[in-house]
Design brief:
The complex is a heterodimer of chains A (about 130) and B (about 350). In chain A, about 20% of the residues lie in helices and about 35% in strands. Chain A has about 130 residues and is of the alpha+beta class. Classes of the chains: A alpha+beta (about 130), B alpha+beta (about 350).
Chain lengths: ~130, ~350
Amino acid sequence: MSNIPAELKYVASHEWIRVEADGTVTVGITDFAQEQLGDVVFIELPEVGTEVTADQDIAVVESVKAASDIYAPLTGKIIAINDAVVDAPEAVNEDPYGEAWFFKMELSDASQLDSLMDADAYAAACE
Amino acid sequence: MGKQTALHASHIEANGKIVDFGGWDMPIHYGSQIKEHNAVREAAGMFDVSHMTIVDVRGPDAKAFLQSLLANDVDKLKETGKALYSGMLNNNGGVIDDLIVYRMDGWYRTVVNCATRDKDLEWMTAHTKGFDISLTERPEMAMVAVQGPEAMGMVQKIKPEAAELIDGLKVFQGLPLQGWFYARTGYTGEDGLEIMIPEDAVADFWTQLIEAGVQPCGLGARDTLRLEAGMNLYGNDMDEETSPLQAGMGWTIAWEPSDREFIGRTALEAEKAAGVPMKQVGLVMETRGVMRSHQKVIVEGAGEGEVTSGTFSPTLQCSVAIARVPTNTGDTAQVDVRGKLIDVKVIKLPFVRNGKKLF
C-alpha cells in the first residue's frame, strides 16, 4: 500500500500539493506514482518564472521503464524549482514527499485549491 | 490473474511487484530494478524464467528435423550438452522465434520464448511431416537463471553434488544431474547458469540462494542487462516481418553446407544477393534523455531507421539502444526523442560484457 500523507492535497495525475503558510504551493509526485514508474533516472523541470495553466504538461520524469509527463496541478507562476532532485533523481523513489519536491508555485487565484482531492479521495482514486 | 510459476509465492514473499508477461504473473522488480541490475554485474542475481517453454525433440530423425527447422546447424554440436542459439524462420525468412537448442544424449532439448509458445509449437508440429520424431513439452520443469561473476560459486556452495559438473561446463554447455539440468548460458552478458529444476524442488533452492546473498531480479533488470549485452528481445528487435540479416543475427545462420535446405534459406539468399538494406547497431546517447523502442533514427545522407529497444543503462549511466539503421550508416546519427533530435554515437554491439564497457 502506498503512502498518502493526510496533510497534503492531490490531483488525479498523481501530483501532490502542499499549501504553505504564505499561500504558495509546493508540488511533487506521489508515492503511488514513483512506485508505478520504478527507478527514476532523469527529471526535466520548467524554468522559474514560467506561467503555467492547470493540466498543462510542464515537466518530464524518465524512469528506466518509461517517460512520464508531469502536469501543473493549478494555474499560476513557477517561483522555484528543485535543482537537487534534477541532480539526484533517485530521491523521487526514496523520499517523494520530502527531499524530492519538484517545484513551487504562486497561484493566480487561491480558490482553485477547492478543486483538489484530499488524501481519502486520492486513495480511492488509486484503487 | 495469469498463469503462475512454482515460485509465485516466493516472489510475493520477496516483495516482487507482479505484472502480466505473456499471460504469466511475473515480478518486474523487487524494489529497485537498478539495484538488481548492479547485483548481476557485480556479484550475483537470479531470475525466475520458468515461464519459458522447454520442448524436447526425440526420435531417429531428430537431427534431420532440426537441421530443416533451424537457420543454425545442430551438426555444429559435437559433444553432449553443447548448445546453439538459432532463429526459427518462416518461408519468407522472417523470425518466428529465437531459441536455444542443446544436444543431449541422442536427442535435443530446445528452449523457446513464452509469448510465442503457441505459434512455435504449431509451427514445429506442422513441420514434423516426413520425420520420425516426437515433440514433448516439459511444463513440470521450473527454470532459474543465476547470473553474475559470483553466480556459479554460489550455486556450487548450495549444490555441492553439482560442483564438479559445474566446474567442467564450457560456455554454452548444459548437462543433467539427478533430474536437474545445469547450463552455462544466460541473457545478461555475465557468466552464470540457467538451471532447470523439478517444480517441487525449486522454491527451496530459491530460498537457499536468497540466504546465500543472491539478489532476486525481475523482468526489468533482465531487460536492461540483456540490452547492455546487445542481445535481441523477440518482438522488439526481431519478429516475423524482420530478416535475421537485418536484426544482428547473421552469425546464427549456417550457410554451409550449401545443400542444407533449412526453412527460410531461399528467401535469405535472395535478400543477400539483392543487398541487405538495413543493419543492427547500438546507439549511445551521452546527453540527458532516454531512447525508447519505435523512436525514429535519422542518419544524414543515409536515410532513416528505428530504435528497436532502448533504455537507461545502469552500468553506463546514460541511455543506450539497439536500432535498425540503413546499411551505410557511419558512426553518428540522431534520434527523435519526444520531438527533440538528439545526437547519438553509433557503435557495434554489445555495450557491456562481463561488467566492462566495450566501446
